[in-house]
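Quick check before the chapter quiz. The format below is the same one you will see on the exam, so make sure you can read both the input and the output lines.
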Amino acid sequence: MINKKVANVAIALDGVSDNMTFMFGGFGLSGIPENAIAELVKPQQTSTRKNTKYGIGVGIANVKNNVLRYSHSGGGMGATAYLLMYPEKDMVICILTNLSGVNIRKIVGELEDVFIE
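Here is the expected output.
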C-alpha cells in the first residue's frame, strides 16, 4: 500500500482549484477537518501573486467591526441564494428567494447591521 500521509493540510491541498473533487476521512464537522476548511477558504493568489480575496468557492471579507465573513452566492432565472458564514460568531445566515433581480447585497448589509455587533 502507498503511504499518502503528508506533514500538514496545506501540503495535502496544494494545487486544489475550483471544480475539483476530493475526500477527507474523519468525524468532526461531518468528516471535514477544521484545518482543511481553514486552508480551503484562504484567499488564493494569481500567477503574479495578486491576492484574489476569494477562496475555493468562498468569498472572504472582514465586515463590520472587523468580523470575518465567508460567503457564497448564486442564482439563476427566478432564484437567488446567498450563504453567509461568520465563524467567530458561530453564526450562519442563508438567504433564499424565488425572485430574480433582488438587491441581495443590500439585504446582506441590513442583516449585518442587525446581527453583527
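If your answer matched, good. The chain has two domains: 1-40, 57-117.
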